[in-house]
Amino acid sequence: MASLVVSFPLLLLMTGGLIWIGMGLALAPVESIRRRVDASRPRTSRNECPVGRNDEIARMARTVNAMLDRSKRPRRFEQEFVSNASHELRSPLTTLLATTERAAKDPDHADWNEVGEVVMREGRRLETLIDDLACSRDTTSTVPNP
Question: Nearest 5 degrees, angle CA 124-CA 126-CA 132?
Fold first, then answer.
């Protein structure tokens, strides 16, 4: 009877420890996926979760990888859009600045009619670009899914 009182709690403790270790090993891939998703930042180039065996965990890892890939698409679209928009806006602004600076350096010999025409033309061009940006922002409530 005394040996049962000692051996039963010891057996229970060993069984609990083995279950705890087994569950930790079984859930290690889930923890790995969780850490990678938690650490995922938009600036990272490639941060995929490891796909191991062909089981539920592997299917979840593939699903998370697909989700991470989809979450990067809008950011790439936004970066491309901003790059294109800044280029389009920079061109007329450069023309305006060059024309007015050239005229300001030698105001007595500047052709002010030409300066005025360039300023008006490039001002209208900027206005059109800004209106186009505003319209595209108003009509596009979400970023398209490429």
Answer: 100
Q: Under 8 Å CB-to-CB from 99, ≥6 apart: which residues?
A: 115, 118, 119, 122
Position 136 pLDDT exceeds 80: no
The answer to whether the predicted template modeling score (pTM) of the entire model surpasses 0.70 is no
CB 79 within 8 A of CB 71: no
Helix runs in 1-146, H state only: 2-39, 56-105, 112-139
Q: Are the CB atoms for 32 and 49 separated by under 8 Å?
A: yes
Which of helix, strand or coil describes residue 112? helix
Q: If you ran DSSP here, which 8-state letter would residue 50 be given?
A: P
Burial of 8 (0-12, 13-18, 19+ CB in 10 A): exposed
What phi and psi, each to the nearest 5 degrees, are found at residue 53? -65, 170
Would you state the structure tokens that stand for residue 54, as one six-digit string?
């062909």
- Rounded to whole angstroms, the Cα distance separating 75 from 63 reads 20
**118-134, pLDDT tens digit by residue?**
999 999 999 988 888 88
What is the Cα–Cα distance from 5 to 8, expressed in whole angstroms? 6
**φ, ψ of residue 126 in degrees (nearest 5):** -60, -45
